[in-house]
Amino acid sequence: MKFLHNCIRISLISILYIISNKVYCQTQQQLDSLREFTASIADPQLQVDNLNKLAYWYGGNNLDSSQYYSSKAAEKAININYRNGQALAYNYKARAYIEQGKFKESIEYFDKATDIYSALQDTAMLLDCYKGMSYVYSFSSNQIQSLNLSLRALKIAQNFNDTLSLATVYNNIGVIYKKLNDFDLALFYFQKSLNYDKLSSTTSSREIAVSYSNIGLLKVRNGKSNEARNDYDELFKLLPKLNSNYLKAHFYLSISEYYNSLNAIDSSKYYIDLTAELSKQLNIPQIQSKLYKRKGELYFGLKEYDKAIQFIDSCIEISEKADILNHLPEVFQLKAKALATQKKYKAAYVASQESTNPKYLYKAQKVASLLGEFEKEEKTKDELERLYLKQALENKQSELEKTTMRSKIWFAIGTIGILSICVITIIFFLIRLRKKNNELHSQHQLINNQKEQLENNIELINLKTESLHKLNATKDKFFSIIAHDLRSPFTAIIGLCNDLALSYYDYNDEERIKHIKLIEESSESTFNLLENLLYWANSQQDFIKIQKKDCLLHEIMNDSISAYLGTAQIKNIQVENNINKNEKIYVDVPTIKIVFTNIFNNAIKFTHKGGLINISCCREENKVVICINDNGIGMNKEVMDSLFKIEKDVHRNGTEQEKGTGLGLILCKEFIDKNNGNIWVESEESLGSSFFISLPVSANN
What we know:
CATH architecture of the domain at 544-696: 2-Layer Sandwich
CATH topology of the domain at 544-696: Heat Shock Protein 90
Coiled coil: 433-471
TPR repeats: 87-120, 167-200, 209-242, 289-322
Catalytic activity: ATP + protein L-histidine = ADP + protein N-phospho-L-histidine
GO molecular function: ATP binding; phosphorelay response regulator activity; phosphorelay sensor kinase activity; protein kinase activator activity
EC number: 2.7.13.3
Number of helices: 24
């Protein structure tokens, strides 16, 4: 699960890096435009301002360019005696040197900038310089100077109510408490810094990321890694928004230490490797020193003591050359532990003694004393503010008591006046509301009437549309039958007749009889089709008058199927009429006969030779359900869904290639509806079909 969590997190970082690269491209276009504009303007003071802007923007991604433009700005500012522009250029040079790890040069240019700002009495820019200088001194043994500068910056920031600067100063104070191993106060000031970062409208992602990293690392080093998870989750979200590789390297080392505390060694190594790649690009001693320290800690935890000592020695060498002394006591203690584990006790003792070397130790007692005064001053401010508020509250209470009686009298008068106005206003609005309600009620009634009329019109349009579709389908079906289904048999009949007339003597008697038989069958089929077509046409024009009466179902069925029993006999199909001879129905006899005839004819058509057709019925309340069942070829669902619909084209040949149009079943549906009945089918392919017809029973039944 940890591995999966890390993979997802790394993938999200990659995606966000792509987004940040797009933002970087847009920023690069703006920088190009600013460069071109600066080169074209004649005002030297405006040139200095624009060069400083370029130095500022390049400070986030290209330190060499930042140094170049700040140097040009300083040079031009000196030539025109533009002191503000000169000091700002020195400030930007100092900050670029910080990210290059050149702390001596950084302090040099901060000193130059503060001299000018002091002369100009520009406290806002002095505040900015004090913050930067405090940060630089925090890496040296001169922690007292770092603290003094932080406290100076704090006073100015409090006067200006500068939340962004307050966040930075409280962060620096938190770092000092961390070095004094005061976990609670360090965490308090780191959290205070984060709160001010979130309050400031000008806070960038880098300041918030620094706070989360400091809080998370503090918890890790105090054995509270589980509590640090949320802090590192927030840091991961902010990483892709940062353009500074210098900061990224610091954050990667912090993340590596977090994973190491969770015993996620692979993840820890991954972020150490990322730092190593950035360290090669940046070549900053401060980062290299921390990187070697982190590697030494990692290999010490893995019990690879030779490697651990190798990286610790590299850390010591780089730190002493670059005057980065603040973490060397901790590094020498780690070296002493590694040597002692290898039983190199003499070397371990020497390393242990080095960890207490005065040149590596800052004056913790004096720093603690200064911080004690700072805390006392902060408490005094809080106490004074509390006393002031208490006195103000007492004065307010006394004044309130004096005016209570007058207020009550005026309040009573005012209350009566307000109540009178309220009553009059309420009556007025009630009258208006009643009038408005009546108007709304009338409008609502009108809208409802219009809505009802509209719904009726829509329903009428839908009915007419449906009727029009049906008429179009009827017309298309009618012409299709005339053009194809009716024309084709006549063509066959005419062809057979012509052939018989022209070649009469070429055939023997048996062949002539065969031709005549074919003509007879084709004529009979065509006549049945024509008869159905005429019935259908009459039905469409309401020429067929339905005259219902009581009649015996068995007799109607026999009359309907008798003409087709010969066809069934030719195909050797057994027909069983199992209808109750006493069952009566209340129907129009001619139209019901057409229904029975068509369904029985279809059963013969789609039943194989030697098959069976069974006709039966049963009573269901006030209906009789007739079933005409065959064991023929059956139907699939698609064919069944298309039956009884004029708009669907269903053409299927019978088992002996008998032709069909589907018109008969459409006619059956119409006639059944006219007789207040219902028709449906159940079928499976290769297993036969069952047509069901429900009809009203006789009232006397």
